[in-house]
Design a protein that fits this description.
By secondary structure, the chain is mainly beta. It is built from one helix and eight strands. Keywords: Signal.
Length: about 100
């Protein structure tokens, strides 16, 4: 999965998840990869998404001021939050598309 799609998927799951007093690990699978991550709310407009992809590597995304920055699968990620678009298909769960650079 390209790094933008991966980051966007995590971002969408974290933005739709309710806030937790404690950081509870969340998981989902996509294309045979299991993602386990936590979302830490730093302030009202900033959150950190960090975790592990299995198989794969660790990742960390910093979401603040309309920007997403960080790393995933050994690559630097950086995109605007408004570039994340949710697409749904009747036969599959929601998927995300992010403009590639």
């Amino acid at each position: 999965m390209n790094r933008f799609t991966f980051s966007a998927a995590l971002l969408a799951f974290s933005l739709t998840s309710p806030g937790h007093a404690k950081e509870q690990p969340m998981t989902f699978s996509h294309d045979g990869v299991k993602y386990t991550y936590t979302v830490r709310n730093i302030s009202e407009d900033r959150r950190i998404i960090s975790g592990t992809a299995t198989p794969g590597t660790d990742f960390r995304l910093d979401v603040a001021k309309g920007l997403v920055t960080g790393y995933a699968n050994g690559s630097v990620v950086s995109f605007r939050l408004k570039d994340v678009k949710v697409k749904t298909a009747s036969a599959s769960p929601a998927s995300l598309v992010v403009a590639a650079r």
